[in-house]
TrEMBL record:
Residues 1-212 form the Vacuolar protein sorting-associated protein 13 VPS13 adaptor binding domain. GO terms for biological process: mitochondrion organization; protein retention in Golgi apparatus; protein targeting to vacuole. It comes from Schistocephalus solidus. This is Vacuolar protein sorting-associated protein 13 VPS13 adaptor binding domain-containing protein. InterPro entries: VPS13, VPS13_VAB.
């Protein structure tokens, strides 16, 4: 007696409509028939359409489109999974990425409510019975994830599976193009690794995009710096160190009420540096402008990023504090005093008597000026150096002349940043009449 049995039998144990295909068979429009469709809780026999291609099985899901109100039978097609080897007993955890969502109000509400996920997770088990390999596909959404990535830092991270390389090496994740939301445009195989973003203080379930490749994950921050981690090795991995730059902003003049400033109508100005004079002024925030970026060193120095030579973070090995570093400093020289009188001619005599006034500026790092170049934020949010100079914003003369028509932070734009050090008999740190 001769018994004929299929070599492969696929069992769809999920509530989703699934499609299966041999990897790379969809590169040509002539092989559309190679896609095999299975309804929920159904079985089908499978064979390889092409013997000249890799015998790897890929799967994708058709999810009911809850945002399409024109057709009840509309589906959203996920991306194809990575290739699986099904000629030996083993199991896989697959992640099916959903295409990019539209910016409609309905989809946004569903995204916020968590009713529509970013990815679907499937569990695939290969079981050999007699001469048949059974490919059993189950829904893994309620099972513990294969991996989970927790971002406990205060910055966003980029992560992607590594193709080649070893743990600890610097890798540059490559972002793969995302297909559109329409399922009819997702017919070709769009597998491969994809760079994803993980926000600060958040976590995400994870499974490798390519299940047959080593579980190596490249994690990086904005700017290109990244490290590779091996999921098969427990314990701490290589440290991911990044240079954290910040904007320095002001909330107004010392004598103003907080009700004068509305974040909805006007953005708080940030500290900027004029190119030639190295004078620190207030300006509107411009994302990516290096002249507005500052770095806080462990020693209390505030370094100006715009005065350093640009270089890739992954290859940066320079020491921040050197003779070539430009740091935040105080200028109390005679030319600075003349500039103060020209800029703010109405400084009252009480302020001049009780405070030493200077201008905030940039200067080369010098250990001799450590007291003037070392800064900290006190409990009230004032920026003070070790020489007791406190940073204060001062309006120009136009504000004093047209105070009735200028009552916002716009009056501070372009103004020099003044510093004031109280005398020994003065109990107040800042001068309320300076502005």
């Amino acid at each position: 007696m001769v018994t004929f049995t299929p070599r492969f039998m696929i069992s769809n144990e999920t509530n989703l409509r699934l499609q299966f295909a041999q990897r790379f068979c969809l590169d040509s429009a002539t092989h559309k028939s190679a896609v095999m469709d299975t309804q929920p809780h159904c079985n089908l026999s499978f064979h390889w359409p092409r013997q000249d291609l890799d015998q790897l099985l890929c799967v994708r899901a058709l999810v009911s489109d809850a945002f399409n109100y024109t057709s009840k039978d509309s589906y959203v097609t996920t991306h194809w999974s990575g290739g699986m080897q099904i000629d030996m007993p083993r199991s896989y955890s697959l992640k099916l990425r959903l295409p990019r969502r539209p910016t409609s109000s309905a989809s946004t509400a569903a995204l916020l409510n968590g009713t529509f996920p970013d990815s679907l997770f499937l569990r695939v088990s290969i079981v050999l019975r007699s001469a048949t390999f059974f490919v059993i596909v189950t829904d893994a959404s309620r099972l513990p994830p294969l991996y989970r990535i927790e971002n406990r830092s205060l910055v966003s991270l980029f992560y992607t599976q590594v193709i080649g390389g070893a743990a600890g090496d610097d890798m540059s994740p490559t972002e793969m193009p995302q297909s559109n939301w329409q399922s009819d445009r997702n017919g070709h195989w769009s597998g491969g690794v994809v760079q994803c973003t993980l926000g600060p203080r958040s976590g995400v379930n994870y499974a490798p995009d390519e299940p047959l490749l080593p579980a190596l994950l490249s994690v990086g921050v904005q700017g290109g710096l990244s490290r590779t981690y091996d999921f098969d090795k427990l314990g701490p991995g290589p440290r991911l160190v990044y240079e954290k730059y910040a904007y320095l902003t002001t909330c107004g003049a010392a004598d103003d009420s907080a009700s004068l400033y509305s974040t909805a109508s006007f953005e708080y100005p940030v500290l900027d540096v004029t190119p030639r004079s190295k004078r620190v002024v207030l300006n509107l925030k411009r994302p990516g402008e290096r002249s507005q970026l500052w770095y806080f060193s462990d020693t209390g120095h505030i370094l100006h990023e715009g005065s350093s030579v640009p270089c890739e973070p992954s290859s940066r090995e320079r020491q921040h504090l050197s003779k070539r570093s430009w740091v935040l400093d105080v200028d109390t020289s005679t030319p600075a005093a003349d500039a103060i009188r020209n800029h703010v001619p109405s400084i009252d005599s009480t302020t001049l008597e009780n405070f030493q006034i200077g201008i905030l500026c940039l200067a080369p790092f010098s250990s001799r000026r450590s007291a003037y170049q070392t800064w900290h934020l006190d409990e009230r949010g004032f920026l003070v150096n070790d020489a007791s100079f406190c940073v204060q914003a001062a309006r120009d003369l136009d504000y004093r002349t047209h105070q009735s028509s200028c009552s916002s932070l716009q009056c501070l734009l372009g103004s020099s940043i003044l510093v004031a050090r109280p005398s020994r008999s003065t109990k107040c740190l800042v001068s309320k009449t300076l502005s």
